[in-house]
Every structure is written in structure tokens, then in C-alpha cells.
Amino acid sequence: MQIKAKRLLVRVVFAATVVVVGTLVRQRSVATHATGWLAAGWVLTALMVWRVGVAVRRALQGGRQHMKAGVNLASIDGAAAAAMPPCLRGLYAMEKRAYRFAWRSLTAAPVRPAGPFGVAAGPLGGKRTASLLLTLALCAAAVGWRLPHHVAARWPLAGAYLALLAAVLYALVWIVGERRSLHEGGHRIAEGTLMLDLGLRASASVPLRAIDACLAVGGRIRRTDARRLTAGEVATVSIDVGQPFEAVICGTPQQLAAGRLLLYVDDAASFVAAVNRAMAAIRLSG
User: Fold this and answer.
1) Phi, psi dihedral angles at 72 (to 5 degrees)
2) Can you give the pTM of this predicted structure?
3) pLDDT tens digits for 244-279?
4) CA torsion angle 35 41 47 53 (round to 10)
5) How far is it, in rounded angstroms, from Cα 224 to Cα 214?
6) Which residue has the higher pLDDT, 285 or 73?
7) DSSP 3-state assignment of 261?
8) Could you tell me if residue 30 is inside a domain?
9) Is 141 exposed, middle or buried (0-12, 13-18, 19+ CB in 10 A)?
10) Which DSSP symbol is given to 187?
């Protein structure tokens, strides 16, 4: 994660530098028409063309690799993901899941929880969704009311309203999809591993042998060094993990360091009892 963060920082600094230098070169070229500033502008333009060419070349190479098996949804999806910068692939993965869960909610498909220990029945989840929907409605109404004051022409105004409608629908997909993902999430124990699923937000696989303690906390714990995977709810379970484990946070696979996890589980007592029984069985088996 530190390497990814450094690469992202370098790219941000590079982009900011290009913008600042480009603005300066343009201003000086217009003001002085000096040969040096004109040459600097051409060099900067050549650099940007080269960067775009490298990005297109990489995208084409990734697309060819994924198209070898033929053109289908899977190959198109793989090519699109390969063409993206690494920092956007996690968001792309979350967006696909948001569309899928929103469609399942729209079509009233049966809920299929990922595990027996649910994470969607907390007291804050429904309120959070309602507040997001209310905020979206108020913002859309305010923007829609102000649009005629700023866009007078008929067709540009129609285009602005269509853009507003698209933005509202896009936000609804995320709100509804995220809520449905919690209903279809849930934790389970399988093959000596505690599988955590918090919908769009996160998932993780924690080996039972790596768990030092699992107990119900009833929201009373206050640990700043703990990682919270609570899906918008107050934590009800605390798990101490003694070694790094694999997780997917906001669509991005990563390895989390050992430490304390704070979770929300609908039935914390049953969850803790099941995890402790499974831990005891693993240790007794050798």
C-alpha cells in the first residue's frame, strides 16, 4: 500500500507540475514571443503527446491479451480493467457490484446472503440510507430550480436537465446498490477460515489459527489503533488477529496488518460463540 501511495503521489505531483509549467509557458509565450518560451511550449507539448501515446500503447497491449479468447463481456471487462490506472481499478470493481446489486433490488430478486451472520439489520443502516435519499432529493430539487436562472436557451436547458437526471440516477444506483449489498453480505466460517463480507465496502479472509480472541463488545470499545469494518454501524464484535491477512477494501485487494478488527454483526452473541467453537476445534485438531 505504501508503494501504491507513493506512485499516486508522484503522479499527482507530476500532473500539478505540468499544469503549472504549462500555464507559465503559455503566459510568457503570449507576452514575450521569445524563442525560448516557444521552444519550451513545443517541448512540453511533445512530452504530453508521448505520455498519451505510452498510455494508449499499454491499453492496446492489454486489450489484445484479453481479446485472444474472443470478444465477449468477460474479455471486454478485462480489457477495460487492464487499460485503467491501478488506482481506478478498485472503484471500477465497486461500480460493477453496485450496478449488479441495484439491478437485483430493482427486479426484486430473492436475497442471497453470503453468510449466516448478517450485517444489515443495525439501527443506523436504514437511517443512513434514508438520509442519503433525502439529501439527494433536496440537492436535485435545488439544482433543478436554479437551472432556468443560469441556462435560458431551450435545448441547452433540456440538456442540463438530462445531465441532472443522469447524475440523480447514478447516485441512486450507488445508494440502492450499497444497501442491497449489505443485505446480501454476511460472515461465515468455512474450511478453517473466517470469511467476512460487508457488501461493497469490504471483505476479508481471516484464518482461524490467526485469531487470538473474539468477543462481543456492545459498542463500548474505544480503540484508536483498531481497524473498523462496521458498515456504518456501531461495532458489536472485536477480533484480535495475530498475523497479516488478505482483504478487499473499497474494491482493492490488499494485505492488512495484524491487529484488532471491530465489526458490526446483527447477532453478535451467536457469531462470537460460533467463531470461538471453530477456533477451539481447529486447535484441538492439531
Assistant:
1) -150, 180
2) 0.69
3) 999 988 888 888 888 889 999 999 999 999 999 999
4) -120
5) 18
6) 285
7) strand
8) yes
9) exposed
10) B
**Helix, strand, coil percentages for the chain (3-state, nearest 5):** 60, 15, 25
What does DSSP say about strands 237-241 and 202-207: parallel, antiparallel, or unpaired? unpaired
Q: Among 83, 117, 133, where does a domain finish?
A: 83
Query: What backbone torsions phi and psi does residue 110 show, to the nearest 5 degrees?
Result: -60, 140
* Residues in the chain, total: 286
CA distance 61 to 186: 39
- In the chain, where do the E strands start and end? 188-190, 193-197, 202-207, 211-216, 227-229, 237-241, 245-249, 252-256, 259-263
State the residue range of the domain holding 195.
188-284
User: In the listed set 83, 107, 142, which residue is the last one of a domain according to the structure?
Assistant: 83
User: Does some domain include residue 52?
Assistant: yes
Q: Are 237 and 264 in contact (CB under 8 A)?
A: yes
Q: How far apart are CA 211 and CA 187, in angstroms?
A: 15
- Provide the grid cell at 189: 466460517
212's grid cell: 487470538
Domain count, the chain: 2
Q: Which amino acid is at 3?
A: I
Of 97, 272, 283, the closest CA to residue 189 belongs to: 272
